[in-house]
Design a protein that fits this description.
The complex is a heterotrimer of chains A (286), B (326) and C (342). Chain A is mainly α and 286 residues long. Helices cover 71% and strands 0% of the residues of chain A. Chain B has an eight-stranded mixed sheet with strand order 6-7-8-3-9-10-12-11, sandwiched between helices. In chain B, strands 2-1-4-5 form a four-stranded antiparallel sheet. In chain B, a hairpin with a 2-residue loop joins strand 9 (225-230) and strand 10. The chains are: A mainly alpha (286), B alpha/beta (326), C mainly alpha (342).
Amino acid sequence: MESWIHNLGRSWYKFSRNKLSVLGFLIIVLTILLAIFAPLVAPYPTHSGPYVDLVTGAKAPTAEHLFGTDIYGRDIFSRILFALRPAFLTGLLVLAIVVPIGTVLGLIAGYYVGRAPDTIIMRLTDIFLGLPPLILALAVSSMLKPNLVNSMLAVSIAFWPWYARLVYSMVSSLRNEFYVRSAELVGESKAHILFREILPNCISPILTKVTLDFGWVIILSASLSFVGLGEQPPAPSLGTMVAEGSRYLPDQWWTAVFPAVAIVMVVLGFNLMGDGIRDMLSSEVS
Amino acid sequence: MDPVLSIQDLQVWYRIYGGYLKVVNRISLEVGLGEKVGLVGETGCGKTTTMKAVMRLLPVQSKVPAGRISFERQDILHMSNTEVQKFRRQGIAMIFQDPTAALNPVFTIGAQIEDVIRCSGSVKGKEEIHKAAVSVLENVALPDPERILGNYPFQLSGGMRQRICIALAISASRRLLIADEPTTSLDVTIQAQILNLIRKIVTERGTSLILITHSLGVAREMTDRIYVMYAGTIVETARTPQLYANPLHPYSVGLFRSVPRLSGGGFADGIPGRIPDYLKPPGGCRFQPRCPQAMPICEVEIPGLFPTEEGHTVACFLYQPAGGRQ
Amino acid sequence: MKLLFFILRRLALSLVVIVGLSILIFVIARIVPGDPARMALGANAPQEVVDRLRVRMNLDKPIYTQYVLWLGGVLQGDFGDSLYTKRPVVEDIAEFLPATVELVIFAGIIMAAGGILLGTLSAKYNNTWVDTIIRLFSYIGVVTPAFVFAILFMLLFGYLWPILPIMGRLSTGVVEPVRMTGMVVVDGVLQGNFPAAFDGIKHMILPALALALGGLSQEARITRSSMVDNLNKDFVLAHHAYGIPSQRILWRYVMKPSLIPTVSVLGLDFAVLFGNAFLVEMVFNWPGLSRYGINVMLQKDLNAISAVILVLGLIFVLTNIVTDLIVSFLDPRIRLGAAKGE
């Protein structure tokens, strides 16, 4: 019990040694809370949908409308809070699909390094990595109906190979460790060796990558909606809001700038936190 | 005569989670001109850290709260950066423990040696420098120097790499050579060759030597005088024959008993216990928790260095002269 | 000899990727729910016109036959006609690709030079205010999407403090160079039309910066961390111990091994520039392949989409090969075929 607390304290020390990691942690906690409680926190919850009030349209930021209003008179601040919801949802669902698939494929390929499963899986991975993720995601989503679910699918297709490659590179070297060899000699099942012996040793890089990727997934899906291949209006989405706002530059700069800043803040939060987690999990003493 | 190198009361700390590791604790040490000195102790007892302090190569998270290091009367710890560079070029050379790590992996041997010669400023001109590099390799008995100069470190064997490191260290003439466990990472068969080479070079040039080692056999063959280190302190110092004939400090005694003998008797005894926690070192003598002869005073007070015979001093209350403390 | 073998092996692997990519692209282009021919012609077109287009696009044949026919055409440089511009896709690509290549190369130079420089400075002044500022800057650079940079630059340097052009490739009134390579700056220089070349560069600055900053920051971070890593290696201590000046150790002995990871990522990021160009070209109205790509994607123009993606895939694979060659040039252990982990 005491050592458990000591470990937690030690982990927090390593994480918080860099004050920026703590800042990232706070940003993420705050934005997640804002997203969850958007209907309560947002000053104009009804503005999240197809609301039109041309009288208050295109107003610069005031105390009443913190970030101003768009041409339909909708409060940008409220819409940003509601747009955080699909952003986090996309991050969560995409990673929930991509991490297990990529990890399992990487485990299998890495365990059978140099043999048929390795060749098949890793060549397939290479093919998917033969395109920059944004182009692959654009290509897939351009063929499907533009909506939130399909954009998640497109982003997932672009992301799984990176996990397969990461896990593969670790496993192909781990598989010759003594504890793997001895488990094989004792006659443990393949599933036991893969998931109980090898996988636990790959957890920390995967965990770090997941935290960082949360941000990248959000950027990628915002990019899709920026070009019009993601969530469709009037549903609030950060990418769409930036794209719509950019049409009214420079006069209504606030319609583009604030949603853009929101994207940057969230991704920054995940990045800072990811670095903190890497510091926390790294074993080096310094 | 003045010593070449003199260390007085040196302390080195490393900052970590929970405070400072007090790695080197009030060490004093002297090396005379042409003298060959051994620094003996277990891994992690602060030998390398002490030498890094001498070379001004300590990492940023370390600090030196007290102490003085002087090399030929120059105060090393308070030198400016340019002075340090000059001092490294002309004063002290160092051979590292792992020749593989000490050579830059992506430059040829020739590029590395020639650059050291060029920077030392003793030889000018491309041709001349190349010739100097060849002759340095010949000095460390490497065959076919021209070919080796064109090779990368990974293309050479461990023994050859260590010869290259020695070549780098002696490529400019210096007054003191520090060899940090120069044979630990090498095959047993190569070790003797490398040690002989170091001894030959040091003797021929009249260079002083500090040999860091955990091997008592190596120290006996190579040195005139020995400092025994334990957990960041010097526990005993004596001329080499004195120490081998009559080790006094309980730690030194244990160290000698740990050496396996070839003539029967099975495995050696070793010393029970382990090196103390540097974060919270034991009060009093640092060896006291493992010491078979510990007394009540050992837990409270730090022993000074008590002289027992000419050139032989011990940091142990067992050898405190009768009639009071120093 | 070993180097030749290395290159051949690399090319063979790339061939697998390219063939696989062509299949992947083909499959993606056929997963469209509904009839592509109907989609291309709109809901009001008569059924027989749609049927005729189906036959012309080979949509009436089994899928593997379609692939073979498509691939046969591609190998002869025939990607079919674009339903969006109503002309051969190859012509479209020939027209739009040079503008993108020019922009991406310019951005790539900014990215590589800026990233390595900032990373090195950051490592050199590790844990000082210089390091803090550069790290903060690169954090923001890494997390800001290219399209956000594009919009911010447009707002700041196009409207608020209008010092640079924000639309297109050339100002009105500047004599356009005769099209040779299709790259305005290159053509301008070749023909001695320096005003056009200069104007072309001015037009590229903002879009190229918007494109480059993400990668630049990434490069700065990687260079910094690999330099800090290498600075703690024994060989650096050794170089110091031999009395080599610290500046020389940094810029020569630490730089070269530290560039190995940077160059690997640089290659990847260079290809990512082509991806981000999709968004940046849209914002700056840059008449390149990526803006064309977005338009055909929004139109579901199958032939054009497949062609654009295949071309970008080829460029990506090519970039990777070049990257590997540069890395093997920097790292003798790879070039001379030593086992890894030596």
